[in-house]
Amino acid sequence: MAAGFQASRPFVPPFPPRSEKPRGSLSMILTLRRNPLEIWGKADFERPLAIGRSILGLRAAAHDPAAVRRVFLDNAPNYRKDELQLRILSPGLGSGLLTAEGESWRLQRRSLAPLFSPRQVAEFAPAMQRVAEATVERLEHRRDGAVTDVGELTSRTALEVLEQTLFSQGLGREPSEFQRAVTSYFDSFGRLDPLDLIGAPSFLPRLGRLRGRPALEFFNEAVDAIVESRKAQLDRGGEAPRDLLTLLLAAKDPETGLGMPEADIRANIVTFIMAGHETTANGLTWTLYLLSQSPEWRERAEAEADEAFDPLHPASLERCEVLRGVFEEALRLYPPAATLTRLAIADDEILKVRIPAGTVVAISPYVLHRRRGLWDNPDAFDPGRFIGERRERIDRFAYIPFGAGPRVCIGMAFAIQEAIIILANLLRSFRFELVEGHPVMPRQRVTLRPRAGMKMHAKKRRSSKIST
Ligand code: HEM
Fold it and tell me: Using N-to-C axis directions, what is the helix angle for 125-140 and 150-164, rounded to 10°?
């Protein structure tokens, strides 16, 4: 630990109660609807693997690095995205990269990979810096110490980053409209419906989802506007910018030579808007909260933002090991994608236990990241575990906020770079303090959001006048 920093007792941030006993069917349905995070009982945080039949069918819960490796990497072709997950994601995300399978997924992944190469991501740094500076400037115009919903602040900032990078002609709508639509989608389609849980046929209407229809209409109209605006630009003889839409339009199947179906192009626009901002914003929100509760780490993060981070030289990001550490620790404790699930196509064996075909294997980063025996003081906020040689001791398959294997998050490097730039800019100018008495508890609605939002005072530290 650097000199001058006094180690204090680590802060243990809030998490939902963990039941001692297995739940009955009714309790399971109610819990999944209220907050799927609460489904994990005490035993789940202690054991590597469990398999059993419940109202959800045959399910295994795998929370051990070797099991994670088996499902996501070594035998990945045997595991596909399961029906329940697709029922939540597909109405909005269609057959985009997150939900596609087989050849369609391969073509999409290959076509979009160039946008996420290390070189290309590094080239996005100045745009991310400009957006972060604009956020700071907006905050500076407010009364010192004004109450800010940090979830809203970070999600608007992350949307603006997308507008300046992947969607170079912008999103054509106000960020607040996207924020409202995403929240409404998560609160309707993202809430597990009892009919889905018992496997009722899809023609039976799910009432909760009707509320999400306007959000779907909004996404459709937004995509129309984005595609139309690009077509108009190309018709005028304009040059195609190097961005997501250009790559989607240029994608060709190597065997047939055919372009990507229009439905997949549209699906990927929504996929990248949703997957590309909500998760990063979530991680940033939890980071600012955790720092507000840990004076020692807040001071270290502020010192690094002041001294090590150079907004004019994005390469200085590599020096920001504290900022990276606090963000990674926030993703450990509150992984935005809290549960990943896969369906076993054929029989398999995991940790010497037979996994019959048709089993849904749930791997929850939330549980894995807090597994007894894998982590020291697993529920405590300790960014030091991601710094220096302690970081090297972490098993690659024990820490999976971005997933693992061929379907690992395509935006991982993008998200980490973006998060460090935004954090550095915010912490140089502001100290975020939780509004007294504001209740904080994670709730899973597709992503892991704070149940009552995150109301914080943004108190000015000093004016940052450095500009790119
Ligand atoms: C902190 C931020 C982020 C987190 C925690 C996160 C998490 C994840 C996880 C866990 C997966 C794997 C899902 C699975 O295996 O079922 C995933 C996939 C994906 N993510 Fe992210 N993500 C983040 C940021 C981003 C960003 C910034 C983008 C785009 C700009 C993005 C786009 C995607 C896409 C398109 C996939 C699907 C990849 C595939 O299946 O080939 N994500 N993400």
Answer: 140
* Overall domain count for the chain: 1
Residue 394 has which token pair?
Answer: 């972490």
- Of 120, 162, 124, the C-alpha closest to 421 is 124
- Is the shortest distance between the CB of 414 and ligand 1 below 6 Å? yes
- Closest CA to ligand 1's atom 8: 402
Answer yes or no: are the C-beta atoms of 91 and 189 closer than 8 Å. Answer: yes
Q: Are 273 and 162 contacting, i.e. CB atoms less than 8 angstroms apart? A: yes
Residue 298: CATH number of its domain? 1.10.630.10
Ligand 1 closest atom vs CA 414: 27
Which atom belonging to ligand 1 lies closest to the Cα atom of 162? 30
In this predicted model, what pLDDT tens digit does every residue of 110-161 receive, in sequence order? Answer: 999 988 999 999 989 999 999 999 999 999 999 999 999 999 999 999 999 9
Nearest ligand 1 atom, CA 365? 10
- Percent of the chain's residues with pLDDT above 90: 63
261, part of any domain: yes
Is 259 inside any structural domain? yes
Global pTM reads: 0.93
Does residue 201 form part of some domain?
yes
Q: Does 109 contact ligand 1 (Cβ within 6 A)?
A: yes
Task: Say yes or no: CB of residue 274 within 6 Å of ligand 1.
Answer: no
CA of 72 to the centre of ligand 1 (A): 14
List the domain range (segments joined by +) for residue 263: 81-337+401-460
